[in-house]
Design a protein that fits this description.
It is built from 5 helices and 10 strands, in the order ββαααββββααββββ. It is an alpha+beta fold and 281 residues long. A hairpin with a 4-residue loop joins β1 (10-22) and β2. α4 (193-210) crosses α5 (216-230).
């Protein structure tokens, strides 16, 4: 019997780094969680216990801290690229992947203006970027997590199959709530990533507000198609849309009507709809 090592990679995850950008009149906070993953000629470490080519994960952590000082001036995509290129420079590394999540801090409104040095954490959205560098070049993927949105009308679910286990009633008017996770891939690296992210986010929000949803599956298609139609720099969108159910409460035992006004919100169990929308070859 022959035994061999298959695909493998290693790295450092959950590297927390905060940089305070101290401008002359006001400060800004950059709050990141970074993951580094390397692939390459590391077989000897696994099968022979030889660490001669193993870049210590502690070194990866320290590199992220140092690059936060020298390279965190712009987008997280550019920051990830600088790290990915650095680690690809090691002879034994064939591919480096940098995933960065940015946690948003916004100035506190104070005395009719934005405070120059006091902030509140905004958990409503987490920006994400993944940069992969290998011998074939660099691939950049942007995205977001935690974008929680709701439609109180213009959402339906009818015409689905029924069997002995089906109890869900059909509805032409329901609440649709979801916590969007999305990733999109750029066709070019010569972009203003901050501006691109802002435009894609605006498209997602505007299309979510405007469209009529016959199902969450249809919503995933409609949202993804809108991004591709409005943003030629994007060639693929992947989305994960949990269906965060809001069930109408039966108030009849209390002698009360409930005309679509009182609901119980649940998070578990939830439907999970995932889809990729891409440009045809």
């Amino acid at each position: 019997m022959t035994i061999e090592l298959g695909a493998n990679r290693y790295g450092k995850s959950a590297i927390r780094v905060v940089r305070v950008v101290r401008g002359q009149d006001r400060h800004a906070v950059r709050d990141l969680t970074v993951a580094v993953a390397l692939e390459g000629a590391f077989e000897a470490a696994h099968v022979e216990g030889d660490n001669a080519d193993v870049i210590a994960t502690d070194t990866m952590k320290n590199t992220v801290y140092a690059f936060a000082s020298d390279h965190l001036e712009g987008s997280i995509e550019a920051f990830g690229r600088s790290l990915a290129e650095h680690f690809l420079g090691f002879e034994q590394v064939a591919r480096s992947t940098i995933t960065t999540r940015e946690h948003r801090w916004v100035p506190i409104a104070f005395d009719g203006a934005a405070a120059p040095d006091a902030f509140t954490r905004d958990p409503s959205i987490t920006r994400v970027a993944t940069v992969v560098a290998d011998d074939e070049g660099i691939t950049t993927e942007a995205g977001l997590d935690d974008l929680t949105v709701m439609k109180t009308t213009k959402s339906a679910f009818v015409g689905f199959p029924r069997d002995r286990y089906t109890t869900l009633p059909e509805t032409t008017d329901r609440i649709m709530a979801t916590q969007v996770s999305a990733r999109w891939r750029y066709e070019s690296d010569d972009l203003d990533y901050d501006a691109c992210f802002a435009r894609v986010l605006r498209t997602l929000l505007e299309e979510f507000a405007a469209h009529e949803s016959p199902s969450v599956q249809a919503s995933a298609w409609i949202l993804g198609r809108a991004v591709l139609e409005h943003h030629p720099e994007v060639d693929e969108v992947r989305m994960s849309l949990p269906n965060l159910h809001h069930w109408l409460v039966d108030l009849a035992p209390f002698g009360l009507a409930n005309d679509g006004e009182v609901f119980v919100a649940t998070r578990e169990p939830h439907g999970l709809i995932e889809a990729t929308v891409r440009r045809a070859e």
